[in-house]
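Hi team, as promised in this morning's meeting, here are the two structures we talked about. I've kept the exact order from the run log so nobody has to guess. The first one is mostly here for context; it's the second one we should focus on when we meet again. Sequence first, then the predicted structure tokens.
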Amino acid sequence: MDMIATPPAHPADPATIAVLETIETRLRWLSSWTIHNANHLRDSRDGLKVGGHQASCASITAIMTALYFGALRPNDKVAVKPHAGPVLHAIHYMLGQQSQDALERYRGMGGAQSYPSRTKDSIPVDFSTGSVGLGVAITAFASLIQDYLIAHGEMAEADAGRMIALMGDAELDEGNIYECLIEAYKHDIRNCWWIVDYNRQSLDSTTADRMFRRFDDIFETCGWRVETLKHGKKQREVFAQAGGQAIADWIDACPNAEFAALTYQGGAAWRARLNADLAGQSETLALIAAQDDAALAALMTNLGGHCIATLLEAFARCDDDVPTLFIAYTVKGYGLPFAGHKDNHSGLMNPGQIAQLRGDLGIVEGEEWAPYGGLGDNAAASARAVVEASALAQAATAKPAQAVAVPECLPVPDGAELSTQAAFGRILLDLAKSGHPLADRIVTTSPDVTVSTNLGAFVNQRGLFRRQELKDVFSAARIPTAQKWAGHGAGQHIELGIAENNLFLMLAALGLAAPLFGTRLMPIGTVYDPFIARGLDALNYACYQDARFLLVATPSGLTLGPEGGAHQSINSPLIGIGQPGLTYFEPAFADELALIMRWGFEHMQADDGGSVYLRLTTRAIAQIERADDGWQDDALRGGYWLKAPSGDVDIAIVFTGAVTPEVLEAAALLADDVPGLGLLMVTSPDLLHRGWSARHAGRWTGAGASSHADTLLGALAPHAKLVTIIDGAPSTLSWLGSVRGMRVSPLGTDRFGQTGDLPDLFRAYRLDAEAIVDAVAELCLGPVD
């Protein structure tokens, strides 16, 4: 064990404490029973263990009781430790906001989810959790977004809530915690609490004793207040008696693993060990002798995280906006038969053990689901009154955020040659200058690649967001610079360090502004396309909870040639296709991009919408003149015929994005031999694949309808042939052959590139016009020797 905390500043109300202790035992029981029912009573059709983490729930019930029914305010938002999901469901069950049916189907279809979920659970969930550490870090970014809204006049200071994370101590091993901590320090966040269930046990082991005082040092260095709640009230009372300090010193010196083992062994083991280690200290031994085995075990495990009084006093001491880390010492499995056992992470009480616990709590068999079972009428009434008077019970239903108006069309940048990345920057700049309401709701962010992803002009126009004014020293000194970035409360760009994980957590927090704070923001985040993978877990986390944002990834593919393989993305189109809640586009022309961006701003707000991913490039390509707007509807469905097939031709080139010049060059070379060659421009492999998959699945549900891919390829003969090409994984487009049973010659990038210019790279990786011509010839004439 580590250190003695500072004693509480003031006592808590004994009557309140007694009622909250009663509620805590109910939460421990209901969470345990919910898990027991799923594993031992409910029919199992597949024979698999359901699980549910009874020990992890038991270690945090006192913390959640003190927080939810003692300290929580109406505007506070909480991210709950993933393995404490059953406790959260039990809280809402006691509030009457969760059904018994959902608890009985815990971890089953349609039942309470394994981990708290904004989109899958029926109870209110502020932040989804599940992937360890992400639910903690997002609260820091949410606190920053709250300050952004306050600074922009979208929220009153008095309405600010605390962004609170309940976390297991094993989550402190996650690197994203410290990446976030650094960013939070830079932005001087406030109104953020992280409460650690410090049970010092994870799945495989106990926490290393070397972590003594390290977490305190790290967080204090980053400007956080640290409240260490090691000892409960009973322990502190004993420590104050003659001989008590020796027990306190012994606890501080006891290794975490030995403390856990003694907890599991119980009172007799505690007595034997203390008598041996403290032999000769008569006053101390007298204190030990005054306790029977059960009382001694209760005393030694009376840690701060299990003491309602200690928790309430600590929360009350921190009633300000200073970011605070609470390290609440607990016992994993507290109050359960396997408390302290190193294997209890996935442990489950057997029927005999749950029956013993039921009896100890005075719950009548058959009344296990009664919210206040085992309590007398007066105790039940008192507990119910506290529950019903809690901030959680009184929280008002959030008002739907108002829609943000989107222009009828976005201006298409002019220029004979443009890259999609440059076009993106100019579209945003035009919006920033326009004064349109949409521009005022756009918030941009980037992990230290603002300039190289073409956000610089928008930032020049709209400024950096800072709670405290940040002057542009270079401009003030009249030093020539393209970036004139002053920081102030009205700024609309949130500058981040290079950690991509923070980018996606920031986008998640920005994208939840509507449901969390009642104001819709239109977040745009930019990143180098290959480095999406560095934050992929956080991207998935953002999409899972239905955060809405526009992700602009650029440069992409081989087109950042001189940078080499580490900067040349290959599989990101497959991420775009495979990620639920994210729609991927890869435009080639500026007018496509303007059309898609406008669609994206609408899609980010739609009830059935989601986030959007644009894969853009730095390669400038010649723009084309359009005869009319007839292509636009098809482009927003995923693709259109840039040149429709004609005559009796039975072959087409299917392509997307940066390889368009090579396709047009190859088509010119093939014009005499294949005069009716079709050129199918794919703007979204994702939408095409999604529509085709839905059509295929619909065959079995009676809801089948022709997909857009079917319609497009229907312009060809049934057994036509396709050459597909993309600056990315060839499987992004090669599946199109399955739509109508067509032969395919897929071109793309399937290995890490080297440095080089585009002609050399495209030749080496067979993305050039010659490779396309060869692929057409092979399909038409057979293999070329």
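And here is the second protein, the one for discussion:
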Amino acid sequence: MKAIRRFTVRPVLPDPLRPLSDLARNLRWSWHAETRDLFQSVSPEGWAGAGGDPVRLLGSVRPARLAELAGDRRFLRRLTAAADDLDDYLTGDRWYQEQADGLPAAVAYFSPEFGITAALPQYSGGLGILAGDHLKAASDLGVPLIGVGLLYRHGYFRQTLSRDGWQQEHYPVLDPNELPLTQLKEADGTPAQVSLALPGGKALRARILLAQVGRVPLLLLDSDVEENELGERGVTDRLYGGGSEHRLLQEMLLGIGGVRAVRTYCRLTGHPEPEVFHTNEGHAGFLGLERIAELCADGLDFDSALEAVRGGTVFTTHTPVPAGIDRFDRELVGRHFGPDAELPGIEVQRVLALGMETYPGGEPNLFNMAVMGLRLAQRANGVSLLHGQVSRNMFAGLWPGFDAEEVPITSVTNGVHAPTWVAPEVLRLGVRQIGVQRAEDALSVGRSERWDAVADIPDQEVWELRRTLREQLVLEVRERLRASWRQRGAGDAELGWIDGVLDPDVLTIGFARRVPSYKRLTLMLRDRDRLMELLLHPERPVQIVVAGKAHPADDGGKRLVQELVRFADDPRVRHRIVFLPDYGMAMAQKLYPGCDIWLNNPLRPLEACGTSGMKAALNGCLNLSVLDGWWDEWFQPDFGWAIPTADGSGTDPDRRDDIEAAALYDLLEQRITPRFYERGRAGLPDRWIEMVRQTLSLLGPKVLAGRMVREYVDRLYAPAARAHRALTPDTARDLAEWKARVRAAWPGVSVDHVETTATTATAELGGTVGLRVRVGLGELGPDDVEVQAVSGRVDAEDRITDATVVPLKPAGTPDLEGRLLYEGPLSLDRTGPYGYTVRILPTHPLLSSAAELGLVTVPSEEVVEGAGMVLR
């Protein structure tokens, strides 16, 4: 008979073993090898059966075994040492506490998904893994972060394959009682909840569950509570599931409910209130509206509250294409706000105005979550240097009149949490070389001097490590492949061939990621005969391990998966190429270390960052990638290969794929496989080992999440905290009034006359040209504006490139018509065609950039005609 409900009956731990519960409930175990080793020693079989999850392990250990351990003095000494180490980690000063005063007292970090560990499956792909790594690195550095997300009862889907290779989705129900979570409770012991008002007098309630990620609390909101009606209970059912209204309610709960959860957590625990709110993608953008509503309830008007909220908000975009952004019908959003729904104190039109695409090329009836995120945040960033550039172009319409490079979106290149992704064998080699503490510092804080010791590791040790990791991957692949084929309906008698799949001495290529079309899962299949020759080469064969999930609604992605699976099923090559279903963190942690080459071939520039290659690099795996995302920024021939791209505007997609696939095959045939298989005098692939060494020593410190979080602190969190403190209610009111006055008066701002002291159309390098500009400011004063000269080399259409901006100074008093004279020198610091223009911008000490208001005045055509020349 089948049970109608399941739950776990936990044993009562004997007093000497009580610290095991604290160790299991703090997710630091997921990146702390000694703690995992301790749990494994409790019951090696139980540890394997629990999938490396200590909470599940403790729920399955027999009382007799617990009693035995309670009397085992050696085990108790290890337990005490682990508990003391955790206490020191949680309470001691770390990097953040050693910095100068002025950093934020706390930062709230919102994300729709978090990939902390396979034991808490609340992620779908790179966005969630990045958010999890951000929390872990913040914990290691001592950054006072509070994570905020949703608890999805089904998580993301589990993937299996049909007999003919078609992706099938399964949604196992997750029981919060079996997860490493605790329920946040009020002082009287009742569950802490947040509530949102819905149209028609209904409500959406959610309880607050807490996952402790080292020093960082992660608050997860769960709408599956008895107080909700059936529809509302299902709001947090699936990650990225459901229709538009379902997604809107999820994002309202995340943003608005998330702020309320943070307030509740701080009230109950005494944790400092966040001074900075960081929204990871647009899904959590409504958090800014809730904070505006809080300030309005304290007596501030909407515009002043908006300025106060913007100052302390950071927005990170991960999307390189408009289609990747959540957009909702304006009527749907409007229905969920206002007097009969949520945030009744804010006019619905003010809410809608924050997200509407009111710029050329926008859809005026759609509410865009990323646009709202940018309008509600004074600081924004992309996640690699190239992605920052792509984002500035994509959102340039929000700052009309400014060149894309001046759009106020910077970039902080993603990083990965090394203690999570570095194989224990790699870590042990580092510990032998530089000691435990220095190795831990190298992985958490970074900085290159801690990685220089890699140069001293003997070639033989490096090569033996690489082979060990490859051998472990081969065994893992065979086990997973056998399980997959059983799920596809094969019997054991059909599967004898799996024992010969992959070879620990063959060059191994990994490719694992989500399967949208732009990531081009099947580019490697473009010329199947050529791929077969590579796989089956008699002297220099390659083998490929592939994994990835297509979104449940993406039949195109599922067809790509099926195409790859059918090729890998071919008896001629199935020992050399495999597809592993159900890609997730547990698989990834085995896959990255065991590969020699990490392959990435997206359509450039559609990969925002692509952190999987970073995780591979930390294990000595070399990257083979299109110059996109982080690889565009840090590629060097010392530690990998760049696949040439055919991204000219005249190249049709099929031809582009043909060209880039051919380039991929050429690199493998002519440069990569010869280098892997060639042997030096000691019988080792000396040049390959040197590339591994360079990957670890040069790339290692760059790709760390510790480096990333330090950049966020220095470049975004600290300035946002200063802005938050500066924008008191009175200051915010003054700034809002100034902005309103400037916007109203801006049509009266003009450049009326421009003249130079140059007398010819040529000039000498190192000289200067005097510039005199007469401007009209209408109702504004000189303190409200900055008049600038913009100069630099010009292209064939007289567009200024690589511009230099110089403020001009007011000279004298207004003329009879009220116009002001501004003067300044132009330094001729480069040769060739050279040009200049002038412009007027608003200026205020509390603006984060000159482009913040999107207002700029440049000379009219009549003024340009009399302004002099372009110098050639």
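Starting points for discussion:
The chain has a mean pLDDT of 93.
DSSP finds 29 helices and 27 strands in the chain.
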